[in-house]
Amino acid sequence: MHSTIYKLAPKAQWAEAEARGQFTGAPIDHQDGYIHFSTAEQVEETAAKHFKGADDLLLIAVDPAKLGDLLKYEPSRGGALFPHLYGPLPLSAVLSVEELPLGEAGRHQFPEMNR
């Protein structure tokens, strides 16, 4: 069984998802045909690589068991397996939403996460 997975999203993008009742993805997700997620071990590198300096970022924790067969773990950066969701993210699968404040050198300050 896989542990909690994480999505990074700007506050405005997530507010739209909450208003719709589901998250259908960011522009990069639409381009690639699935919603990108990271494991606890991967999410800090994802933030540094794709969201450096973003001061409106949220860390969305998701229960992968609630996503069914639409969630696939596929090779990506460096051959590591990343979680990809081939469908919308139902808000019922969201465990928590936390702000990610910026710290030194534009790196985000992460809370303790389930690994």
**Portion in helices:** 10-25%
The tally of domains stands at 1
Which second-level CATH architecture applies? Alpha-Beta Barrel
Strand content: 25-35%
Number of helices: 3
Distance between the termini: 12 Å
Number of strands: 9
3D structure, described in words:
- This protein is an alpha+beta fold and about 120 residues long.
- The chain has a single domain (about 5-95), classed as Alpha-Beta Barrel (ADP-ribosylation fold), CATH 3.20.170.
- The protein is about 20% helix and about 30% strand.
- It is built from 3 helices and 9 strands; from the N terminus they run E-H-E-H-E-E-H-E-E-E-E-E.
- The chain has a 4-stranded antiparallel beta sheet with strand order 4-1-5-9.
- Strand 6 and strand 7 form a beta hairpin.
- The longest helix is centred in the N-terminal third of the chain and has 10 residues, at about 10-20.
- The radius of gyration is 13 Å and the shape is globular.
